Amino acid sequence: MSIEYSVKEVKNIQYDIHRELILRCQADDRVAQNELYKRYAGAMYNICRRMLNDDDDAKDMLQEVFVEAFLKIGSLKELTTFSAWIKRIAVNKCINAIKKKRIFAISIDESIDPTEETESIDKDIIGNDAKKVMKALEQISDGCRTVFNLYLFEGYDHKEISQIMGISESASKSQYSKAKQKIRDLLKTKKFHSYGNE
To answer: Is the full-model pTM beyond 0.90?
Structure first.
């Protein structure tokens, strides 16, 4: 006899399992830490890879993210926020690494009018094959790529990005507009038109 669960019941079961896993991690349970790592490593690696633009750096950063997360997990009060909490750790650590390497341009180009930002460009980019967009993203400057990642992929607004990066809001908007235009131009080239169709 099969047992059927409603969507709500399945979500409750998943929540209970997730909650128990985090509680076990807070008690330094290595098996639970390994399980939590398996659940979140892929998503955190993608964040690190997009931000650092290098496989080896992203792998190293992934380890640092989880080391910090497991060291600080005892301070996590609201267990349902774990996903957002570890994502914030990943983003902050990547930004710190970028700043240490002085990758982020000291002089930010504000020549592009930030008010020209339009959703149509976003849709134009999002509508493309993800692999092509990621490949194009690798070709743009680190400053543009960082702002683009934070805004489009990580969901930060320009005010938050300006605070995180220590730049003005207009500089953040300018870098984002510049990044979008460069990606759009790259996606129109023959190289990217044929990318992934070989």
So the answer is: no
